[in-house]
Amino acid sequence: MFDELQAYVPRSLGGIVDVIAEARIGDTSQRAWIMPNGSIEIAFFLDGSKVDGFYMGSDADSERGSRNSFSLLFGAQSKPQVVMARETNVVLVMMSPIAAKLLFGISASEVHNRTIEPTMIQGDLAMIEDELNTLPSFRERARFLEGYLLRRLRAQSDIPPFVSFTRHGQHVLRDADPFWMGKTLIDRSGYSSVHMNRLAKIWLGTTLKRYEALFRFRDALGRMQAPEVNLAQVAAESGYHDQAHFTHSFKEFSGLTPSAYLAASKIGIDTLLFEELPEKSPVDRAV
Question: How far apart are CA 270 and CA 82, in angstroms?
Fold first, then answer.
């Protein structure tokens, strides 16, 4: 699907912005079904892009049509994203969910599985898109975006305590027993579970339990990239009670059973390609 894909890691924004990428998509009838990863993303469609469909799980039907001329902020994803595009050049900024509040003044819960037009958030994304169209190379566009986001970050008078804790908490999310990640985070924070979940919705877009479930799903996806996959072993190693629990949770997040995911045509771990989208779309169901 991608004719060209370039990426740049803005180290000055480590922990907030993961990567700035640019993808060129030629004329194709395939639909991309992109697995959720919990991130906040901005998409800038450059001049000449033709997008037939680009939407998230909680977008209204009226928001699911052509998206040819707008920059978009979307994410804190726990549902697949659907993209139907041809002859498209898109610049993507992939960020931690804390970026919604920290950089744009909007709670991550407000963009949870939704697409937000630039006029609805703090900042001047439409102007940024105009500037990107004047720059001749991906490297210049990436450096320009890094500088813009860094200025927004530096405009913050201080970093909220929960953000600092979230960065520290990545070690918990990586190393802890999946069944106890939420409890470990609460214990280390010193907050009550009620207050911690209130903060989690603002900064992460969802409750700690759902964030933990998404982390477990992502862990399973990674294990399913092995040359030979034993799904029962994947379920056990990713912390599911049993294979039935694994299948149910995996389908909640991906819209597919683990076996259907393995059989699908893919680009990397996240992008599944279909001539026609699966009949029952998980973007139409609550997650």
Answer: 12
Strands 40-45 and 88-95: antiparallel
Regarding whether 13 and 116 lie in a shared domain, the answer is: yes
Boundaries of domain holding 218: 161-260
Q: Extract long-range pairs of 187-192: CB within 8 Å, 24+ residues apart.
A: 189/165
Query: Tokens for 66?
Result: 């052509």
Q: Are residues 127 and 82 in the same domain?
A: yes
Instruction: Spell out the residues 6+ positions from residue 34 whose beta carbon is closer than 8 angstroms to its own.
Output: 80, 81, 82, 83, 270, 271, 272
Contact 165, 189 (CB under 8 A): yes
Q: Alpha-carbon distance 179 to 247, whole Å? A: 17
Angle CA 109–114–118, to nearest 5: 95
Q: How many domains does the chain have?
A: 2
* Residue range 2-20, pLDDT digits in tens: 567 899 999 998 878 999 9
Give pLDDT tens digits for 50-74.
Answer: 777 777 766 777 666 555 445 566 6
**E-only strand ranges, the chain:** 2-8, 17-25, 31-34, 40-45, 50-55, 72-75, 81-86, 88-95, 114-116, 265-267, 271-274
Count of Cβ atoms closer than 10 Å to residue 229 Cβ = 13
In a domain, 115, yes or no: yes
Contact present, 46 and 90 (Cβ < 8 Å): yes
Nearest-angstrom CA–CA distance, 75 and 58: 10
